[in-house]
Amino acid sequence: MAKKKICNKGLISDLPDHCLCHVLSFLSTKDAIRTSVLSKRWRSLWQLVLGLDLDSRDLGLGFSSSRFSNIDEFVKLVDKFFNLHIESWIHKLRLHIRTFGSVDYTSYLTKWIDAATTRRIQHIDLHCELLFKVAVKVPLSLYTSKTLVHLRLVRVNLVSADFVSLPCLKTLHLEMVRYTDETTLEKLISCSPVLEDLTIIKYTEDNGKVIQVRSQTLKRLDIDQWYDRQYGIVIDAPLLQFLRIIAYEIKNIKIINIGLTAKVDIDANVLSILDPNDLTIRSMIRDFLIGISRVRCLVTSYATTKDIFLYMKLEPLPQFCNLSELSVICSISNLEMLLNLLKSCPKLESLRLKLVDYEKGKKAEVMSSTVPPCLVSSLKFVKLLFGYGCGTKLKVAKYFLENSTILEKLTLKNDYKEENVKHIRQTLHEIPRCSSTCKVVLYS
């Protein structure tokens, strides 16, 4: 049989310029510049890429191994990019500006963003990491881009604007951003009619008192509020599919409307740090629980679970009639409260439970004799995880095995490698099961 001829065709360098530029567009500008040493063909190709992805620590114009030596060198390269594409559309602008002393970059950013927004820019990513807390302001042209699809801003100042219009913006990421008043953020959200993905990481004291998220198109919302009792969150997003909130010691979380099939991940505490006897606070917690009671999937942290349990001692929980998946962290001393929570979840199909022993010295409560309805009619999957110090794994597993009528699988994580795994398996095997088809999986 004759050997096949080796063909030299199909090399990447044989592709036309526009294809090679498309390949280079997936690289940072630093790496795209490095390809210029491959051959004469590649020497200037990086300059044709319709995007700039540059870190101020990247290589200088001389392609040496050193970083930019001063602000002028960095600015020169960015200016050169815009001069090369003075009549071209620009797809992407990503600038990570690290400190050059106490230089204010506002004038540079204004020039570059003004130029980008007139050239049909779709992606803007600005990260200013400066010393001396220099206030870098973004220009007003950013608020009226007709083509911008993705906007990420980190450590910049948003100036107030009377008019905001971002008709194509789908993704907005604001991290440690300062703005002069609450309406700036509200306008960015409400004046983006196709916005789908919003992330807000907020920590500065001079920002507004309330995060107002009102959108008829938003599908994903991620809020990291940090710690501050003077702040609040209001959410009105009927199409929301995913909501994640991290907000310790927050003043208020008000959920007016979210999607019925939404997944909600809450790590927050309100009631445990405020006066539970205050009827206003109690009403606020009630409204919050009602707001999340319609969701399909709920994930709660230890702090949130404590708040829910504390509320349950004061007033009855609303019914979580649509909830099919629940992931919860609670103390081993609150097993009875957990079962009371499950009684409010009549259609629960999957439970992921992590038991911890943060409240040292408190013993696990006796499991309730009244079985939650979901164990009889809907619960199919249970996953049990135990933190260090929890010695009740078999007791909890036994409860679910003996009382879950249609359970299909119980997964038990064993964190005690020194324990006799064979003995645990034998004990689990000997527990009578209410569901004859249930499988038990033990893993370390």
Give a written overview of the molecule.
The chain has eleven helices and 21 strands. The protein is an alpha/beta fold and 444 residues long. The model is unreliable at 4-9 and 59-66 (pLDDT under 50). Helix 3 packs parallel to helix 4. The strands form three sheets. Strands 1-2-3-5-7-9-11-13-15-16-17-18-19-20-21 form a 15-stranded parallel β-sheet.
Helix-strand layout with pairing:
Elements: H1 17-24, H2 29-34, E1 51-55, H3 71-84, E2 92-98, H4 106-117, E3 123-129, E4 137-138, E5 150-154, E6 157-158, E7 171-175, E8 178-179, H5 182-190, E9 197-201, E10 210-214, E11 220-227, E12 232-237, E13 242-248, E14 252-258, E15 263-269, H6 279-292, E16 297-300, H7 302-312, E17 325-331, H8 335-342, E18 350-356, H9 373-377, E19 381-386, H10 393-403, E20 409-413, H11 421-430, E21 439-443
Parallel strand pairs: 1-2, 2-3, 3-5, 4-6, 5-7, 6-8, 7-9, 9-11, 10-12, 11-13, 12-14, 13-15, 15-16, 16-17, 17-18, 18-19, 19-20, 20-21
Helix pairs in contact: 3-4
